[in-house]
Amino acid sequence: MNESEFNQKVDDTLFEVEEVLDDAETDLDFMNNGGVLTVICENQTQVIFTRQTPVKQLWLAARSGGFHFDFNGKTWVRDSDGALLNDVLTEIFSAQAGEKFSFDL
């Protein structure tokens, strides 16, 4: 994947995350600024997505830690253990926002 394709994939992914969060029952604020998506939960905890173009990774910071994801041609997988971004996001938002979301990224 070249840099342009990577950036488009991240943009598409962040847009899809925003679409899911738009339907939240809980009060979530989010802003996308320069490829950084910051989600602020009702309890003021944050989930932050950042693109890391040089290494072609999507990074995720949450209360439970920092995670790095690679795109394998089909989906985003955590580099440390192969966990799917969809599953990790479901866990993170369940813990931080108290709501279970279904992601299909």
UniProtKB/TrEMBL annotation:
Function per UniProt: Involved in iron-sulfur (Fe-S) cluster assembly. May act as a regulator of Fe-S biogenesis.
* GO cellular component terms, A-Z: cytosol
Instruction: Note the HAMAP family from the entry.
Output: CyaY
Give the matching SUPFAM superfamilies: Frataxin/Nqo15-like (SSF55387)
Source organism per entry reads Amphritea japonica ATCC BAA-1530
Which Pfam family, any one, appears in the UniProt record? Frataxin_Cyay
Instruction: Tell me which UniProt keywords the record has, alphabetically.
Output: Iron, Metal-binding
**Which protein family is named in the record?**
Belongs to the frataxin family.
Designated name of the protein: Iron-sulfur cluster assembly protein CyaY
InterPro entries, sorted: CyaY, Frataxin/CyaY, Frataxin/CyaY_sf
A GO biological process held by the record: iron-sulfur cluster assembly
Q: Which GO terms describe its molecular function?
A: ferric iron binding; ferrous iron binding
Q: Does the keyword Cytoplasm apply?
A: no
Q: Which gene encodes it?
A: cyaY
